[in-house]
Write a structure and sequence with these properties.
This protein has 233 residues and is mainly α. Helix content is 60%, strand content 0%. α2 packs parallel to α6 and α3 packs antiparallel against α6.
């Protein structure tokens, strides 16, 4: 069972002292086993994400269910938790601060959470200014820099016109070798096979595939800027 599909299951197990302890996570992109604080905080952030623009839609609820995949039979419990948490955006900063403080050394886990939030934000067909402000604040509390958030935003929503460098987390005008190294690192980190190896559900693998396609397209555009034979890859 993936870490994401256990969100509701972990919350129930926390109050069962007879339950067996789960195995320790096998990669640095997973939260600590049976971390109910992480579980509650992620549900809270996802629910409050859907409230950030003042319009709560069923499509956002459905997107959250696809991303976090409550176990079979727990869908109603997940829905109740989600509806309760999204009544207001108040308190989201404490959720983000809690996760960011504990998992600062696991940026890939924090980026996975942000990717899921971007997916929920875009579920109704647009990501508004209020939602972007919410996401930027969550990223800040997770410990991401402005440049890192710019990269995560661009990889989920596409770069601003004429700025493929954003997807690679670079400022416009970065050198060829710097861009190539950033490209190779990001492809390795975001490849769908990597996400599948973490035990992520299909929705996260699909998000990873979209990000990888955006990274490849950005690199192709940057290579065109360095079209002399000396810089051919």
């Amino acid at each position: 069972m993936s870490v994401w599909s256990r969100i509701v299951d972990l919350a129930a197990r926390a109050f069962d002292p007879a339950a067996d302890e789960p195995a320790a996570p096998t990669n640095e992109c997973a939260p600590d086993p049976n971390d109910v604080g992480f579980t509650a905080a992620v549900i809270g952030l996802a629910a409050k994400m859907s409230k950030a623009d003042g319009v709560v839609s069923d499509s956002e609820m459905a997107a959250a269910a696809r991303v976090f995949q409550p176990p079979p039979g727990e869908e109603a419990a997940f829905r109740r938790a989600f509806l309760l948490a999204r009544q207001t955006v108040l308190g989201f900063e404490s959720y983000a601060r809690q996760i960011g403080r504990k998992y600062r050394a696991r940026p890939c886990l924090l980026e996975d959470v942000l990717d899921g939030l971007f997916h929920i934000a875009a579920a109704d067909g647009r990501v508004g200014a209020e939602e972007l402000a919410y996401l930027a604040r969550v990223a800040e509390l997770f410990g991401f820099s402005d440049l890192e958030f710019r990269r995560i935003k661009a990889s989920n929503l596409g770069p601003e016109a004429g700025d493929p460098y954003a997807i690679l987390g670079l400022l416009p005008g970065a050198g060829f070798e710097e861009a190539r190294q950033a490209y190779r690192r990001l492809v390795a980190e975001n490849h769908p096979d990597q996400m599948a190896a973490r035990g992520a559900p299909p929705q996260f693998v699909a998000i990873a595939a979209e990000k990888t396609a955006a990274i490849n397209a950005a690199w192709a555009r940057i290579r065109e800027d360095f079209s002399t034979p000396a810089t051919a890859d």
